[in-house]
Specification:
Elements lengths: L2 H11 L4 E4 L6 H9 L4 E4 L3 H15 L3 E5 L3 H4 L2 H9 L4 E7 L12 H6 L4 E4 L6 H15 L2 E7 L26 H12 L4 E5 L1 H6 L2 H11 L3 E3 L13 E4 L6 H9 L2 E5 L18 E6 L13 E4 L2 H14 L10 H8 L18 H11 L5 E4 L5 H7 L8 E3 L9 H11 L5 E6 H17 L4 E7 L4 H9 L14 H7 L3 E5 L2 H12 L5 E6 L2 H9 L3
Parallel strand pairs: 1-2, 1-3, 3-4, 4-6, 5-6, 7-8, 7-10, 8-9, 10-11, 11-12, 13-14, 13-15, 15-16, 16-18, 17-18
Length: 543
């Protein structure tokens, strides 16, 4: 068996059935083998960074390992921004990259290990033909255990060498939930039980643990409202005392409630500056933080008790101890709070500022929340528009919400949405991207969605400018026209790329968009025209 086929077989043995990539001379044997011998579905991207972002979106939605492949030299260098995004999102992903021979001094030769090092991704070198299968296993194991991208570097000169295939064992031991230390648990429960106004906070670690029902029970025992980090968005939808997102994106009602709290019990949640609302939500409150990684406890904010344990196991133990103590729940869960939460609407509190040629983004998002299928994946690019999108658009579960902002780069989300659409083909992948971000990278991968017949709805929030820069230039009394751009009409561009396009300049056009969504039979693009000044004012007001 050739080395390229052995690598394909090894990836298949570790559960890979979908590979994203871009073909080049140096990885074409690998791609052919992945499809032929690994029997994988191959999703071809328009650019190498798009392939990595697709694998990232696929992994984040499916919970499985993402796999991508690119060619050597510029093929790998084109992935660097995407690798940073995936590394900071802590996404398990293997990028199979070809490489030049060690003695090759050709124009595509470059130190690929050094390229990867600065991104936060890991690197596994295929050392020789006979180690290739074992090296694949190492890359897969490290990606899963370290929760980051691992570049598997495969020299071109060994890919066609014949070897004997020997299957490797499991890439890792099965994940196991572990319970907290009893002495630490005793301190945590003592602190929690004495709280008069506790809040239970769930993060991505709680979602991965499957701890929802246990956390709901714990919150009931404590009389505590529930809240989530952004990555656990909508985890507690349907619960009467769900405050929504905890942090800088909190609603006014949630903020008022959290500021009255005297204790925060966080499960699998990073207490970073955004979750802590620059410290305002944690200052003066007792904090219990539960996480499987001791290095993450107290990393961003000092805690009173740090519990190293699985979120579900810790919550179960807390419920048992509190139940045995016959604790009476606090009165923080008042009927008035339940009524206020039930009556909350993102549409309340702002005056529509649509014009004859633009639509107020908040109005459009409120209507899109109603007209889009409820079972959907929502993907957000970086931009002036993202906070309103995060507030107004709901998802059926946290894995159906992706925000591509870990590196602050625009233009990454559409490729991410392609991977999400492959991972969850029964629900549409709805991506929000600015006009600048669409031109930077989204326009290329929109056609990828067309070629692969994916259910993708792209909403281009088009203010004819780089909106955040426009806002900052204006605030500094500089020339905001520097950030304005004269783009083409995007709806005809979408049609030219093989999709459907609708331009939305008015509330009437928004209703036409509803018809296009309902009747879509291919990737759809909505060119949503908004006023940059209105969007900037909405952001400044926190709406």
């Amino acid at each position: 068996m050739r080395v390229c086929s052995a690598i394909a077989r090894a990836l298949a043995d570790h559960g890979t059935d979908t590979v994203f990539g871009m073909l080049g001379d140096a990885n074409m044997l690998l791609v052919d083998a992945l499809v032929r011998d690994g029997r994988a579905r191959y999703v071809s991207a328009a650019r190498e960074d798009g392939a990595v972002l697709m694998a990232d979106g696929y992994a984040r939605v499916s919970g499985r390992l993402g796999v991508a492949t690119v060619t050597q030299g510029p093929g790998l260098s084109n992935t660097l921004t995407a690798l940073v995004e995936a590394a900071r999102a802590r996404t398990p992903l293997v990028l199979v990259s070809s490489d030049t021979r060690p003695d090759d001094e050709g124009f595509q030769a470059i130190g690929q290990r050094e390229l990867v090092r600065g991104t936060g991704a890991g690197f596994v070198q295929v050392r020789a033909a006979h180690t290739a299968v074992r090296d694949v296993s190492t890359a897969v194991r490290r990606a899963r255990e370290e929760r980051r991208p691992i570049v598997l570097n495969v020299p071109t000169d060994i890919q066609d060498v014949d070897i004997e295939y020997t299957p490797q064992g499991p890439a890792r031991a099965d994940a196991q939930a572990f319970a907290p230390d009893p002495e630490v648990l005793d301190r945590a429960v003592g602190l929690i039980a004495s709280a008069r106004r506790p809040v239970v906070l769930a993060g991505h670690g709680a979602v991965r643990s499957g701890a929802r029902d246990t956390l709901v029970r714990l919150a009931s025992l404590l009389g505590a409202p529930l809240a989530t980090t952004l990555r656990a968005k909508d985890y507690f939808t349907g619960c009467a005392y769900d405050l929504g997102v905890f942090g800088t994106l909190s609603t006014d009602l949630a903020t008022e409630t959290i500021l009255r709290a005297d204790c925060v019990v966080a499960f699998g949640a990073d207490l970073n500056r955004y979750t802590a609302s620059e410290g305002a939500f944690l200052t003066g409150r007792r904090v219990v933080q539960v996480d499987t990684d001791p290095a993450r406890i107290g990393r961003w904010w000092p805690v009173d008790v740090g519990v190293v344990a699985d979120a579900g196991a810790a919550a179960t133990a807390m419920c048992e101890w509190l139940g045995a103590a016959e604790l009476h729940p606090s009165a923080f869960r008042s009927p008035e709070l339940a009524t206020a939460l039930a009556g909350y609407s993102p549409a309340a509190g702002f005056q529509d500022r649509s014009t004859a040629t633009t639509v107020d983004l908040r109005t459009a998002l409120t209507r899109l929340e109603e007209m889009l299928p409820a079972d959907r994946t929502v993907v957000s690019d970086a931009g002036l528009f993202c906070a309103p999108v995060w507030r107004c658009l709901s998802v059926p579960e946290p894995s159906a919400f992706l925000w591509v902002l870990h590196f602050g780069s625009v233009g990454l989300a559409l490729a991410e949405a392609v991977g999400a659409a492959v991972a969850a083909p029964r629900r549409p992948s709805v991506v929000f991207v600015g006009d600048g971000g669409f031109m930077m990278g989204g326009i290329l991968e929109f056609n990828t969605a067309v070629r692969h017949g994916l259910d993708l709805i792209t909403v281009v929030v088009n203010d004819g400018a780089y909106g955040a820069e426009h806002l900052n230039l204006t605030a500094r009394e500089m020339d905001p026209s520097l950030a304005r751009m004269d783009w083409p009409d995007f709806a005809p561009v979408a049609e030219a790329l093989g999709g459907r396009g609708v331009t939305v300049r008015s509330l009437t056009d928004l209703e036409r968009a509803a018809e296009a969504i309902a009747s879509r039979d291919r990737p759809l693009l909505l060119d949503l025209r908004v006023d940059v000044e209105v969007s900037a004012a909405a952001r400044a007001a926190g709406a």
